[in-house]
Amino acid sequence: MKALAWLSLLVVACSKGGERPAAQSQSADTGMADMPGMTATTAVTLTAAQVTHGGVHWEPVALSTVASIATVPGQVIPNEDRTARLGATVRGRVIAVRVRPGDRVSVGRVLVTLQSPEAGMAQSDVDKARAQASYARSARERAERLLALKAIPQQDYDRAIADDELASAELRRATSVAEQIGAAASATGEIAIRSPLNGVVLARTAVPGAVVEAGAPLVVVTDPSTLWLSIDAPENLASLFRVGAQLRFTVPAYPADTFAARIEAVGAGLDASTRTLPIRAVIRNRGDRLKPAMLASVSAQGGGAISAPSVPEDAVQLLDGKSVVFVAHPDSMGGAKFAPREVQLGSRSGGRIAITQGLSAGDVVVTRGALAIKAQIKKGAMPAMEM
User: Fold this and answer.
1) Which pTM was predicted?
2) What is the rounded distance in angstroms from the CA atom of residue 235 to the CA atom of residue 374?
3) C-alpha dihedral over 160, 165, 169, 170, to 10 degrees?
4) Distances (CA, A) of 65 to 308, 347, 352
5) What is the CATH number of the domain that holds 124?
6) Which domain holds residue 311?
7) Rg (CA), the chain
């Protein structure tokens, strides 16, 4: 009887132990269903032991009175007013590429050399037209001398003048065509693609030996001393961006440094699909520290004070180029499921960041250990814990 009693207790204990994970999973899944746009692939689940081991802590979001400073994502891009996108002027074969991305170049430096039969013909036409123009000029000068001696009639002199002017016009035409093609001063058909400005090679698509069509891109050169900051401002923040206003921004490459930009252009209207306003600001890139394609977090000064959710600075992480916090859905076992939620950042004060969009008072977010959550989401799986 004692053996039967112990067996009954063991069966009951096992059945209760087996129910807990199912309840835990159901609770977490229910919480995730309340989060728009979140999927299981973007979430990570930690047990109570893993939460303790990783130093993860979460708490409800509270409202704070903060300065009206909005933070929006942006991107550093080349200054198109100081960028040259050079292409093939005529169909031909690439015979030499003399630069690589990152190389510094000066005005007039040869970047790529092409060879083209069309260019050779153009230069041949120039040589022919130059010879004809030289002959016509000599004939005109000779006619002038003969006319002065009354050795030829006026009609012959007038014809010599017309021939000279016609030959000069043909030389100008042939020279213009050759210059448009970019042919060198020879009949070899070589075309030297030169840099029109001082700067750096941003991109190079030219490959030695390749045959390219007219207009095909070859090299991009930009002057990095000034760059543009491209911003798509949400509709509710559009009033904060005015031409001439100063902006502050940070980039992940230099998290401790703040950079400045001046708004140069504000879009005439919103993008119909994203409901955002395009903004362009100019950056004075001292020391060439900033590079095109860097992501930026841009702050714009508003007016007065506002009441907004705020979180510790460490709670905000950059995930796939977006500012996110990790919303926690605790379970009854002391663990939790965590999912990223994109947020718009506001002002910073006292180690906290105001959230202008994406969170509401009462939302439960990770306030410590967010970096560990981010690492696990990027890896896609939790490592085994040593217990």
Assistant:
1) 0.55
2) 29
3) 0
4) 6, 10, 12
5) 1.10.287
6) 33-78+225-379
7) 35
